Every structure is written in structure tokens, then in C-alpha cells.
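3.2 Worked example (two chains)
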Amino acid sequence: MQLSDLTHQLFAAKKIKELSFADLERILGRDEVWIAAVFYQQAAMSEDEAKLLVDALGLESIYIDQLTAYPIKGLGPVVPTDPFVYRFYEIMQVYGLPLKSVVQEKFGDGIMSAIDFTMDIEKEVDPKGDRVKLTMSGKFLPYKKW
């Protein structure tokens, strides 16, 4: 997968400024995973949010237009056809790389185990429509160096 120039520039500026996504969450008042999604152009910011991010990263204002542009969601071809399974695939298309970035920022270079793993599903009653709450917990597995 090829990342955009904007994505590379945002990550480079974030590294230079030594900011975490949690730092950016405090600055922007938005969730760190959502901010990571913006980095991958999977979400768009308001102009005010984009100005805050550009200032925090020490970038020029020319990036504001790109940060506020409508995103093209998804990272690849759509495979599943079952609507329920497709939604999980859609979640990974949109938030997979942002989730990976945030997890690796917190734990290091590695993965979450799908073998040493638990998931809890809860029903949340909501007057606007019941909600599905998933809680996933997997052991962190760092990549080995040899």
C-alpha cells in the first residue's frame, strides 16, 4: 500500500515535535484514534481543527485544505459480502492503520494476538436505537529481532 505525501509529512512533523497521538488529543479535543485516521486521510477535520493541528506540528497553512478535504475511505478492495462481516472489514479499512499506530506508540513494534484473545459483546440500550459494544483484549506480542 502506498501512503500519500501528506501522510508522510504529518508523521514526520509529529516525530520532529515529539508529539504522541494522546498529546494531539489534548490539543485538539478529539480522540487519538480519530486523529490517527486523519493522518491516513480516512477522516477530515474542520478548518479550526486543521489550524490547531498545523500549528501543533509546525507546518505551513497550505496543509489546511488537504486536512479538510473529504476523505476517500478504505484501504483496498472490498471482499466480504455478508453485511455483518463487511462492517468489520470496513472498520479495519478505515481505522486499521490508525489503530496500529496508536497501539505501537503505546506498546512498541508488535501485534495483538488473535490466539490469546478475548472479546466481550454487550447490548447497550439507547433510545435512538440499541448499540453493540465490543470489547477486545489480546496479548501484545512484540516482534523479535534476530
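3.2.1 Second chain
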Amino acid sequence: MTDTPPTLFFDGVCNFCAASVGFVLEREREPTLRFASLQSAYAAGALPPLGVDPARLDSLVLVENGRAYVRSDAALRAACHLRAPWSLMGVGLLVPRVLRDAVYDVVARRRYAWFGRKDECMIPSPALRARFVD
């Protein structure tokens, strides 16, 4: 996956995750990121060779330059693809991972209770469909 565009894998039935993807799509500097649900066949094939279990739905996964980033690393690295001032969130990578991931985990554990979930993965609009894998 080193020659493919960066791909952000997300929990496709999570309302918060789908809203986060929408946030990225609206603020991305250039349309370089691709998106895929963790529940997709693409995730099932692409993530295990990188040491990531796609059945673990408690994390975003960003695959970039052949490497998988999870949890707060994925979220903050994805923010680096956004226009200013949103890209400044990337400075959060300077915060020790143990602290970042602790905050990330609190939200991840409660996201369904706080934001709800869908019965099916989100379906992108026809205009955005090419940005989604699988």
C-alpha cells in the first residue's frame, strides 16, 4: 500500500465517525485521502498485513506510506491533511501518546452512547463515491 493514496478507515456504523469523515471531506486541503469502512472487505484484506485487526472498531486507522497509524495518531495525522487552521491540530502529535490515547479511548468507548449508531455503513453521495474504497 505504499503507492496508494492515504486511506482513512473508520467505523462505518458510528454516527460520530461518519460525521468526522464529513468534517475531513469538507476541510481537506486537496482531495488526496480515501476512505473505507472498517467493516468493508477492503479493510479485511488491507489491514491485517499491517498488523491491524479490522474487527477492532474502537479506532480510526490511517494507512499512509505503507504504515498503519491507529487511535490518536490516526486522527491527528489525518488532521495534517486539512486546511488551516484545522491542520494545526497536528501539533497534538507532540503530546505524549499515552495521554492522547487516554482521551481518545474515553471518546471511543462512549461514542455510540453519545452520538448513536446506524444499522448500515454510510453511503457516500455520488459526487464523493470515488473517494471511498469498497
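3.3 Remarks
The chain has a mean pLDDT of 91.
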